[in-house]
Task: structure prediction
Amino acid sequence: MQIRNAYSPIRYPYYEIAQGYFPITLGINSSRESVGFGLSVRPVRTGSPSGRTNETQGLLDRRCKDKLKWGWCYVFIILILIFTDFVVFLVPEMQTKRMINGNGSVFSYVMNKKFFSLCLFSVLAFHQVGAQNIFHRLDEMMTRRYRKGNIDTAYIIRPETKWTIKARLNVSGAKIETEGIENGQHFKSEMEAQRKTTISLGVSYLGLSVSASLNPAQLAGKYSDYELSINSYGRRFGFDVVYQDAHNFKGWHDQEGMERIELPDDKLKVKTLNLNAFYVFNSRRFSYPAAFSQSYIQRQSAGSVLLAVSGMGQRAELDWENQMRLKITNLSIGAGYGYNYVPGQGWLLHISALPTFIVYHNTSITYGDVDIPLRYHFPEVIITGRGAVVRQWGNKFIGMSMVFNFTNNGNEKTMALHNMKWNIRTFFGVRLGKK
Result:
């Protein structure tokens, strides 16, 4: 398919679309739409070459919306026929069906793969030009949405290509620490989960991404935990959501006047949900995506004040001498600062910290039949730290990023509980597609 713009490359006042399969040329101008089969149709363009009137532009916008609406109907019909044709291909010929009409007579029909193939070919041939036009319009809409934004291009820009392919190596871990005084004796314990390592490959088109990951240890039967991570880094808003269901914590417990006790794995089971969302004030010059998703490029150093909301929910069970149950729910609000440092062309160093103070706290600890109080003690905080190093040259880039979450509940005079969750990623990517 060839697309030629007769006038302005920005306002698209006239298109000529030449279809390769059939001698069809579709011409669209500012006053009407014409379609010809077997010959080129070139309507006379009305209006000035520099632009359209508001009334004409509104009419064209409504026509485009109608085309999109019917175009998706065509696509849906084609998908149904493709699926049906695929099913029928598995069966050489479907069984003969007998039906009774209104007069009581019986008639039969046979459906086979030739019939469905003919239907599929007919629909594809008839709507080929329209479907391709719809996809082209959709691509234009996505491109405009991807490119638009109130940004200072002296500091941040979008990549000039549409496609990005990225391979990543992810390593994550979690740790729980307790410290306090019981019956006048100081105690401390530490439990750490088995580290998780995954390899992933992702493809992004105009900011929309899809990826698949593989955990070699889980395939080998050496890792049984479950972890789900969702990340979104926008120009103004962003968030991290991490859910972990871990059964393989192991560690130790020290108490004053006693020998250290080693705690084997499979004794502590923990389900944890961590959430951090942020708002960037200086979004015109400072870009989180430049460091973490590479959907922007930071050209000059810049920083921004950040507003953040964090949350943490946890359920834990320790099956030891006496069973212990722990339930924690925290919600916090705070602010921080992030900075992108560009030491030279193609380099980017990022660091940010988001300390938030817990404003809602609900914790319960049960040890055997005894309830252990864990009262709120100011300041209780949730701190999220991020860092990244990115190096890019040409259409390639490589780098490493890190996200760290720390939650503090209670105090060391009675009992303090510290939760830590971290994730490190190394990545390599290539940008492809026309500029």
User: Anything to note?
Assistant: Confidence is low (pLDDT under 50) at residues 1-52, 85-113. The longest strand covers residues 347-367. The first helix runs from residue 54 to 90.
